[in-house]
Amino acid sequence: MRWPSPLPALLLALPLLAGCVTDEREWMKLNDRYTVEEFRRDREACTKSGKLDDACMRSRGWVAVNPAGKTEAAKDPHARDLQPPSARGGRNY
Fold first, then answer.
1. In a domain, 4, yes or no
2. Does a structural domain hold residue 5?
3. Residue 57 exposed, middle or buried by CB count within 10 Å (0-12, 13-18, 19+)
4. DSSP bridge pairs for 48
5. Is 41 a member of any domain?
């Protein structure tokens, strides 16, 4: 018995899964009260080609709580390095 090729199923599933990618950022208005419905309306209006337009959201008063593309925080120059002595190149006794 020969099994059918999984390629057609894979080609069908990929576009469906691409629609599952979501923007993980959270948005809020700092000085205004707002409703979930207002947020949904603005998010829908600012979504172009499946991607949320940050400038559009900011123009409507929204601020990203956890901005996308945020790099790792700078290392504190006063923080102690907590590696074991063997990893710091010290002598082993």
1. no
2. no
3. buried
4. 51
5. yes
